[in-house]
Specification:
Strand content: 5-15%
Mean pLDDT: 84
Strand order of the largest sheet: 2-3-1-4
Distance between the termini: 32 Å
Number of helices: 8
Largest sheet: 4 strands, antiparallel
Shape: elongated
Number of strands: 4
């Protein structure tokens, strides 16, 4: 049976606005829509309130998407580490799907507004976790890049600091394109004051340790530049292999922190129902603005 709907225009005092909206919603018999301006009335400027509500809705949507991504990350990490010494254990939390509409009375629905600070604080935690995860990815990428640089010199068993200048010589440790290696070897062979030794192997680049007498150091430096020689700037007392081990240790620590952040994020799955209710609460408020 279709019941004919009737239009109702309600005019009230501004201070009673929220009470009236709640009372109308509670009846479940009134659909509130925006109406045209009435004569001798002024429309309340709710732009600030609307902006704030839209911002909160966007943050809740972020939380939903972020938790989905963290679940996928947890599943992938658990599978990847299943046979390792320290496997990642992931036990999914059973939650209702987002499109599930729970039945609750209006008072319970309206009460979620009182828990707004608590629920949004948990979303703030997710935002903080997301930010730190991005930092970890950037730091890890940088460390991996450093490892690739040091890997070119892995055949050097002496610490980098041993390739320092002496009182009479200048040392150039670095890489050049492999196709230019022959030119450097020939240059060193023709110059008694220059010694060049291959410092490892690489597909595209060739590492070299070049020792030049100070009398010809400037000439050698200029020649190396013509060969696209990239000097290795590292004065650590570690050998390349030892330096790689330390950097890998830093990466392992970042991976462990990242896994911990996934776990911290997924704890917030227990708040999904509250987030969904708060989202709907905001939508109701938005419609009545």
């Amino acid at each position: 049976m279709i019941v004919e709907m009737k239009k109702l225009v309600l005019v009230g005092h501004r201070r009673d606005r929220e009470k009236l909206f709640k009372a109308l919603h509670k009846t479940k018999s009134v659909e509130i829509v925006k109406t045209r301006d009435l004569e001798d009335t002024a429309r309340l400027d709710n732009s600030v309130s609307t902006e704030k509500i839209n911002s909160s809705i966007a943050r809740i949507k972020f939380a939903f998407d972020f938790l989905k991504a963290q679940k996928r990350a947890a599943e992938a990490l658990a599978k990847k580490t299943a046979k390792s010494e320290y496997p990642y254990i992931y036990t999914p939390i059973k939650t209702q799907p987002l499109n599930f509409i729970a039945r609750m009375d209006y008072d319970d629905f309206d009460a979620v507004g009182a828990r707004e600070v608590e629920i949004m604080a948990n979303i703030a935690d997710l935002e903080e976790i997301n930010s730190r995860q991005k930092e970890i990815k950037a730091q890890k990428s940088k460390l991996e890049g450093e490892i690739e640089v040091h890997r070119q010199y892995v055949d050097l068993h002496q610490p980098y600091s041993s390739y320092e200048n002496t009182q009479k010589t200048t040392v150039f440790l670095g890489c050049l394109p492999s196709q230019n290696a022959a030119q450097l070897i020939e240059f060193a062979r023709d110059n008694d004051l220059v010694f060049a030794e291959e410092a490892g192997e690489s597909a595209k680049t060739q590492p070299f340790a070049v020792v030049a007498h100070n009398d010809v150091a400037e000439e050698v430096s200029s020649f190396l530049q013509t060969l696209d020689f990239s000097r290795m700037e590292c004065d650590t007392d570690d050998s390349p292999a030892k330096r790689i081990d330390k950097l890998q240790g830093d990466i392992d620590a970042l991976d462990a922190e990242y896994a911990e952040l996934i776990t911290r994020a997924l704890v917030k799955e227990t708040y999904i129902a509250d987030m969904k209710t708060l989202h709907d609460y905001y939508m109701v408020r938005l419609a009545s603005n």
